[in-house]
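Please predict the structure of the following assembly.
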Amino acid sequence: MLALMWVGLTCYALFGGADFGAGLWDLLAGRSRQGLPQRRLIEHSIGPVWEANHVWLIFVLVLLWASFSPVFAAVLSTLYVPLTLTALGIIARGAAFAFRKASTELWQQRLFGGCFALSSVVTPFFLGTVAGGIASGRVPPGLARGDTVTSWLNPTSALGGVLAVLACAHLAAVYLCADAVRAGEPGLARGFERRAMLSGLLSGLVALAGIAVLHADAPQLFHGLTHRGLGLVIVSAVAGLAGLGLLATRRHLLARVASALAVAAVLWAWGAAQYPDLLVPGTTVAETASHESVLTACLIATGVGAVFLLPSLWMLYTTFQRPGGAGASPVTGAPAGGTPAGGRDGTG
Amino acid sequence: MKVWPLAFSEGDLAAARAQMGFSLAWHIVVACLGVGLPLLTLAMEWYGIRTGDPAHRLLARRWARGMGVLFAVGAVSGTILSFEMGLLWPGLMGRFGQVIGLPFAMEGFAFFLEAVFLGIYLYAWDRLPPRRHLLTGVPIVIAGTLSAFFVVCANAWMNQPRGFTLRPDGTLADVSPWVALINPASPPQSVHMILAAFMVASFATASVYAVALLRGRNDAYHRAGFLLPFSFGALVAPFQLVVGDWVARFLAHYQPVKLAGIEGVFRTGSHIPLTILGAAPGNDRLEYGLEIPSGLSFLVGFSPETVVRGLNEVPRDQWPVVTAIHLSFDVMVGVGMLLIAMGALLLLGWWRARRTGRDLMALRGHRVFLAVAVLCGPAAVVALECGWTVTELGRQPWIVYGVMLVREAVNPAPGLATGLWLVLAVYTAMTVATVYVLRRLVRTTPVPIAPQESDVERFPVT
């Protein structure tokens, strides 16, 4: 169950995170006219998939509360400030993105676009601070037993927040490179390559600086990362560097895999470092796990759900990752401007 | 049973309740539209493929765009709710999260499927052949209905907590999430809710086109936009009456206190009258209402001798606020009756039109009918909110009926009131933007969602 949750979290970071990062690049795309091609590419890439990506978060939340209810209660009651802000960020982002798509006038698109882009940065930051708060042992078990302010305003949380934003930005830039090439926009691809390099390097630097922060602020996590999690930390560093190398040589698809691996490895390193504690120090998985019957039921539900979900997700991603689609579609092949509905999709 | 510390202020409890109530009241409307609209859209798309009429196809397109906006807004407001469950009610989640986790996990999957197929449905309109595209919409309807079912099951569990035993130290034993999922309240409550969702979506959509018809825009586009959803809503309405009766019978058996609150029965007895409207100023006697002698006894047991249990069977601090839930209930039933009557009138209109050979929109009295039909949309939403108020306020002061009080579940952290104001501000902005965007969707020529959409160019509206 724990592994399942962590898989969900990883998926959220890799897919949802990239959507957040795309929002960041949307924010930094410059003035309306200049930034238009970039924004269009971003919108086109994340439009069909962001809602599905967003559901990973709900998935993780629900599994956490079903399987480790006391931990869920402790985390949400203590960290309610950043989590409320995250929730508001999620509202603003999702709604504004949908509104922007549906609106036609420039000022509206600017307003909703700004809202979307800004909340895309704010949300992962606060999620990062939440992760920092949990990882550095600032969330004790029980209801709101932790400090409601310092549990998320502290060095580890700041590190988590900044790292989350940078990692999202990096992922998004790397993914968008390939999307730009497919859309036939090599100029845009160059731009995103530069951004990917920059954000990748920055993430690396922050992570390096983070070592010192963790050593001072979260010794237990530091110990875990340098012992049990060490392998994964190294994997992350190597994958990150490899990703940059692949970008430099313009192997975009491989770079995607490498940078995704780098981000995933960080998450798994954190998990490995903290295991078996869910709340540091000393609240373990075994103590807080739900009854066997609940875990079994959730696993069954997940299994059945996956049977339906995986083919659907595959269909979703492949439908939109195929180039164009216009030529392949029989609908657009209908006589242009001909009688409505043609003969093919008529009453037949 | 007091396991959790009660170190909160009354103000924060009120704020938490207000915030939860507000976000739920908001989400329930969007969620109902999100469950109901896909079915209407699919029906219209299918109809459009059959008739080949550009007006029908354009309607389907526009509704699909509305679906996209509503789904996004519903998705985020639903996410907020799952956050709020923990942020505001950690006492509930910490102890019972595992018992009601299963329906939420399943809802998560249903929702996931819905999101995936919505993405395909909206963005692949022109990438897929029409019939296959229509098929990609079917999972949206099924998954939407299923998520409504699962979520309402979780709420039903709060009314009829099953599937666990509470040990004296407050921990749980014998947890069975399946028993919790299918508790006695699940079937009546979820069916009632799903039908309500279809009714709200239908009547609200029809309302929009009724306005246009009243303004004289009697063309194929507006007629279909009105008649299809309105007929569907009218078709569902009588079934809702039967299901509503089932819910009331369920209450009489399983939650007599709630029924007593709804009907303002303060003392157990036979020959209990059915009181329409009225108020209970001191929360001890229902006054100013129209009484039908022995009405309630008759409705519950088909005999005036039937004994109906009253509020006096439980301590006074466990009584719900009678005036609020009694009036909400009456409004809900009243609106339901109105909607059924409107459906009957439409049927009568059709019959008259067939017999006289005249057009439906040329019959005498059609303008009055349309004017009332315009009101049916908002009225259905009001009925929805009222019904929800009845079930939630009727359960007070319990968060888990008979097991945990609301005050035992609230987050003891300080400053919940600030969160309330923030949430109110954000939701206000979101409401304004949603309404504005939806109104524009109906009016303006659609811009393509995806660059490949050829229908928009092929079937322009003028």
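Chain A has a mean pLDDT of 74. The two ends of chain A are 50 Å apart (CA to CA).
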